[in-house]
């Protein structure tokens, strides 16, 4: 078993938070308790009063509270039922079930179809697969539904038949021949995605001068950002050759993403804290691209920035909270996995730099030994296995109805559901990629390839905008290379 250094356990003594150091042994995997040893100097003092520890804002995403207050959309229900009556349940599922759906999405679909809340009352403890099974079972047992009447011919344009896609599976594959099939035997090995023939839309022609013009006029820009906007600060991205996942290969993990897996954290929190320092934001810095986002905000052009980054540098650069959706959470706050007590993220930064596990003093006040994850404090980062913040689900559909320009910057669009936002953008809205590498077949009207800071510096120079950042120089010169497909590579001449 790999050793990940000292794990820090806190306890309360005479009103002062103190710590004890325990070697990272095989206790995590064996399920053994962690004993106390000699106390050392205190590092974290939790918030003085425990009354704040379980506020409405800190409710766990899995508690299903939204189900209690959810009001089904009657108009949408009628629309759904009409479609099912006309086309059949399986056609409806092919249309509505997507690869990017979350637990919450499936619950909302069940409720908007008119099924009782009681059917999903165990939402907090159900998996995505189990909820999908409930949806299928409800629909297939609904006697009001008719057999599908699907016309597979389409005169709408070019069609793309994905029936032979090895990664796709028709909803038909999940229909049980035995209506009394045991739920425990049901296997949902692959996520359902649409298999009906759909129109393949070719992006409309869009040139670099069009983008310059639209940036000057746009008032409701959505910007989706990823790790590429912070790499100039030394924070690694995730999937490039020098990215974080490549660095994690030294941990001998079958899947480097396990470092950000909730179940793995609960089993062995030391694994995450052995690498967290690599993605910890630097003190007092933010990139030129972050300042560009602030500039869009100050010019009343930014509708929303949906960031996948966890470094919280957007707010450090001056983005207002109402303009920002942190899709994957951030280091700004931290939470005890046992009592749900919340802390300022900065309170655990020293632990992160030392590759130690921060622990909650309140949980350990009267505890002598406990499982290794007990009282561990976790940054409010969205791990694999956790739902995205409610704010994402609340805003995204409304924002997409208002948008007039869509920018994707510094991301390879690999992680759902953020990766599928582009699929929901209205066809007429220009979709622009600013990234080091191209992303083919995602419907972009224009791709500008290069370092994110360089590309936006060029755009702002064309617009005569001044980016308020020490690295911006309006006198910088750029080399533009037009690619065969109409996209551009933009490089600052001094960059090479």
TrEMBL record:
One Pfam family per UniProt: SIR2
Alphabetized GO MF terms: histone H4K16 deacetylase activity, NAD-dependent; hydrolase activity; metal ion binding; NAD+ binding
Keywords: Coiled coil, Hydrolase, Metal-binding, NAD, Transferase, Zinc
Low complexity: bias regions: 14-46
GO cellular component: nucleus
Coiled-coil stretches: 296-323
Compositionally biased intervals (Polar residues): 1-13
Membrane listed as a keyword: no
Cofactor (UniProt): Zn(2+)
Active-site residue numbers: 328 (proton acceptor)
Positions with a binding annotation for Zn(2+): 336, 339, 360, 363
Keyword Metal-binding: yes
EC number annotated for this UniProt entry: 3.5.1.-
Region (Disordered): 1-57, 155-186
Family membership noted in the UniProt record: Belongs to the sirtuin family. Class I subfamily.
Protein name per the record: NAD-dependent histone deacetylase Sir2, putative
Organism of provenance: Candida dubliniensis (strain CD36 / ATCC MYA-646 / CBS 7987 / NCPF 3949 / NRRL Y-17841)
Gene from which the chain derives: SIR2
